[in-house]
Design brief:
Layout lengths: L1 E7 L3 E7 L5 E8 L6 H19 L6 E8 L2 E3 L4 E5 L4 E4 L1 H9 L3 E5 H12 L8 E6 L3 E7 L2 E2 L31 H4 L1 H14 L5 H4 L10 H7 L3 H25 L3 E5 L7 H14 L10 E4 L5 H8 L8
Parallel strand pairs: 1-4, 4-8, 9-12, 12-13
Antiparallel strand pairs: 1-2, 2-3, 5-6, 6-7, 9-10, 10-11
Helix pairs in contact: 1-2, 3-10, 5-8, 7-8, 8-9
The structure holds zinc ion.
């Protein structure tokens, strides 16, 4: 049986026709309608699924169910998006709305959780049963899989890894707390830190990598550090210390076999992994044990959300 997997994002609705082993037979992406209602989103999801079916070249009857990964808090057992500020949805029956259009049973999951599942199906985590996936992007998101099942907590809201505090009374966060991990470790935070360093150092080599502050990206400081810029190296080092702080916290709590690092920053590969591994080797409470938590870069990129959503049922508790 094949499955529709849908990654509902603020910018695009990506859908794929996915086999049991996680292979994507066809996929399509449509722009998310701006300011859409529940029905508008469900229409866009159905349209993306039809387009994906077209590229897969398989009969419609071959697809037996669907799964949707969405930003925000969800209640999968009732098919509800409990709260999602990206789309202004509150207790919205998204699963039923999509099910009505596709004529298939529809599972619902948080998008970061779905991406963690995707990495376990056919990405970096195929060999493990305990995995923490952390995404360093606009914010910091995550998913936690324990013994092959998503850790959800009583409200299906566990695993909000970006909102653990690493600096008490630190920078204010949109969640209402101060000093949250994502205020220091997201790509947004790295861009902010890079701009601050540039503003204070008008003659820095950093300006050659981003002639204006608007052109600063998550890569700028890494690129300039690689070219020998001492200021950029200081920015990267400070950023990685904060990334490592939150990461070791997560390892102490979950002691997973594997932590998968995703999001735009994960494109740095070894320049990211090696310094983080060094801190983990020094600070992991279980560092004297034979089996150690490993770090890996996410392998599936944007496809993780599609694959994970398509096959999310196997990771959800009954
Ligand atoms: Zn927060």
């Amino acid at each position: 049986m094949l499955h529709f997997g849908i990654d509902l994002g603020g910018t695009n609705v990506a859908a794929g026709v996915v086999a049991d082993d996680g292979t994507i037979l066809g996929k399509a992406s449509l722009p998310t309608p701006r300011g859409a209602s529940l029905d508008g989103l469900a229409d866009a999801i159905a349209a993306a699924c039809e387009a994906a079916l077209g590229t897969a070249g398989v009969p419609r009857e071959a697809v037996g169910d669907a799964g949707v990964g969405t930003p925000g808090a969800v209640e999968p057992s009732r098919g509800l998006v409990t709260y999602c500020c990206t789309f202004d949805l509150y207790n919205a029956p998204l699963a039923a709305a999509v099910s009505q259009r596709l004529g298939l049973p529809v599972a619902l999951e948080n998008d970061a959780n779905a991406a963690a599942c995707g990495e376990m199906v056919c990405g970096a985590g195929t060999a493990v049963r305990n995995l923490v996936a952390v995404t360093y992007g606009t914010g910091v998101g995550g998913g936690v899989i324990v013994d092959g099942k998503l850790l959800t907590g009583v409200n299906h809201a566990a695993g909000e890894l970006g909102h653990i505090v690493i600096e008490r009374n630190g920078l204010p966060c949109s969640c209402g707390r101060r000093g949250c991990y994502e205020q220091y470790a997201s790509a947004t935070a790295l861009i902010r830190r890079t701009r601050e360093a540039m503003a204070q150092n008008p003659s820095s080599l950093l300006w050659q990598f981003a002639p204006t502050e608007e052109e600063v990206t998550g890569r700028t400081a890494f690129d300039a550090a690689g070219a020998g810029c001492a200021l950029a190296k200081a920015v990267v080092d400070g950023y990685l210390e904060d990334v490592a702080c939150g990461l070791v916290n997560l390892v102490q709590i979950f002691q997973p076999e594997l932590v998968v690092l995703g999001g735009g920053i994960s494109g740095q590969g070894e320049a990211l992994l090696q310094p983080l591994q060094a801190v983990l080797d020094r600070e992991d409470y279980a560092r004297f044990h034979q089996v150690r938590t490993k770090l890996a870069i996410a392998e599936l990129g944007n496809d993780a959300g599609i694959i994970g959503a398509a096959l999310v049922r196997r990771f959800q508790k009954e």
